[in-house]
Amino acid sequence: MRRIDFNCDLGEGCGDDAAIVPLVSSASIACGGHAGDDDSMRRTLRLCREHGVAVGAHPGFVDREHFGRRELPVTPGHATLLVTAQLRRIARIADGEGMALAHVKPHGALYNIAARDAGIADAIASAVFEFDPSLVLYGLSGSALTRAGVENGLRVAHEVFAERGYGADGRLLPRGTPGAVLDGVDAAVAQARALARDGTLALADGGELRLQADTLCLHGDREDAAGFARALRAALEADGVEIAAIGATR
């Protein structure tokens, strides 16, 4: 049976987290950079615990005005500080709730930079390993970040997206460009099914992209995120795909 992790970015203050959590297998929780504070982290952690959902840190640029999606100048040293500070913050709260983090997934612009910049990718992976080498590093499938994770001794999860458009190079199309976001549920469900089935993705120019798909992401800040999550989960289960967090036992 094909198996995939279904993850969602949560605790960002702009979605129906309570409706989404029962539908996913893991959650990447905003930890004070682009969004989130101690109270939101605590609420989201408790919600995930209630539904048996694996939890991870979702560190990003401290740029709430642009939701962490604006690319800012960043050095490897700055990337290390960003990730380490936000990891410490959410880990402290998780420990207080009797919970342990399972993974780390950079957010937004930091994620995209790390996907292509080997120096930033290495800084992030090294910071995660130094904090806790048992954490799984989530990164864009086949990117500099997943390579850096392996090189730093981490377990990695190659991430694919249900509702984002891809270029022929395997990178996400920049937001704001044509085809960057698949607004229709049907198109996104079809893309998710193909990725979960055999890692294939049809490109707008008629070509085909093949990607390793360990975890499938849904953005929790979409207005229709809960309905979208229901449709995606139903379609995957109908195809016989097992939905389970990375590292979960059968």
Secondary structure tally: strands: 10
Q: Assign a percent range to the helix content.
A: 25-40%
* Order of helix and strand elements from N to C terminus: EHEHEHEHHEHEHEEEHE
Main sheet: strand order: 1-2-3-4-5-6-9
Total helical elements: 8
- Shape category: globular
Secondary-structure class: alpha/beta
Q: Kindly estimate the percentage of residues that lie in beta strands according to DSSP.
A: 15-25%
Largest sheet: 7 strands, parallel, barrel
- Spans where pLDDT lies below 50 across 5 or more residues: none
| Mean pLDDT over all positions | 94
* Distance between the ends: 11 Å
* Rg from Cα: 17 Å
Question: Can you tag this structure with a few keywords?
Answer:
250 residues, alpha/beta, seven-stranded parallel beta barrel, two-stranded antiparallel sheet, 8 helices
